[in-house]
Amino acid sequence: MKRVVAAIACAMLGACTAAPVEMVYFSENRAPETQLVWPGPPEPPRLAYAGELIGEENFRAVNGERDGAALRMLRWIAGIGRGDKDVRELIRPQSGMVDESGRILVTDAGREAVVVFDETAATLSFWQEAERGRNFSSPVGISADGTGGYLVADADVGYLLRLTRDGKPAGTIGKGALERPTGLCRSEASGEIFVADSAAHDIKVFDTTGRLIRSIGGRGVDVGRFNGPTHLSCNGDALYVTDTLNARVQVLTLAGEPMASIGQRGLFVGNLVRPKGVVTDRDGHIYIIESYYDHLLVFSNIGELLLPIGGTGSGAGQFFLPAGAWTDDGSRLFVADMFNGRVVVLDYLGGGS
User: Fold this and answer.
1) b/e map of 290-300 (b: 16 or more CB within 10 Å)?
2) Domain residue extents for the chain
3) Largest Cα span, the chain
4) In this structure, how many other beta carbons lie within 10 angstroms of the beta carbon of residue 60?
5) Distances in Å between the alpha carbon of 215 and those of 114, 119, 157, 246?
6) Per residue in 257-268, pLDDT tens?
7) Fold of 32-55+90-348
């Protein structure tokens, strides 16, 4: 039976001679007719819509034909591909990162995996194994670990999972010390690992060996206290904390001293109700995901609202319950558009405020 399947598959794929494949950021039926930029004319554009990541739709033969059709046919012949989780695409992306080789790693709670888009190799991978004998359940935060591997915060598992560069389980951090880890970042300067513990309403800090060295905050509404913190971002000597249920983003020193508070609760675009992802670009602008209003909000480095992007929908430049946000080297911005099952990619064009 296996030989029959292989023979039919080879015939469908051109006598087993696979055409070169490339990764693209647009599928044929989802690209906007004109380039979207923000702000619109007559203001100079600062951000441009660059595309989206969905899954196998992002991979096609170099001659222009999508590779996904052949892959779907192969799965059908082999008797797999029944049910949403067998389709090679994002389901409920949470957050992500870009590693030193340019691979885009996306945590996906619906997929229960880390999904890896490798543009250079033109491959799509799904890392499901969190530790030996256990798969991911609800992965959220992800960060490089400083040794060539990765750290993943799984909210349901309740601690951090270490992965090697090729996605193999390599240990754990925070067993017994964390309740519901969500956001995660690592300081390049100190190597310290910061974890948002949403259930404990604080930030746990671990050293490079994985030892808990201190906690920051605790439940409350005062500056320096948190109520359901979710996403984190480390930038130099500053720690950005999405204090979700307090409807703000707090900026702290790495030692935990308050520096600033951004945003306020309200009913208008630019206010925060359920903030999620937070990240900065190379010029210090602060990007905050407002998931309730389905917006990406751009603030200056001193917390002034500069630009709202989005609105509810599935079109280019729209979001539906977005979650995390991250950048590469500061020239591209990624937004986990959770309920649309995609990652939206924006180019940062520079030019200050």
Assistant:
1) bbebbbbbbbb
2) 1-28+64-89, 32-55+90-348
3) 67
4) 21
5) 27, 38, 20, 19
6) 999 999 999 988
7) Neuraminidase (2.120.10)
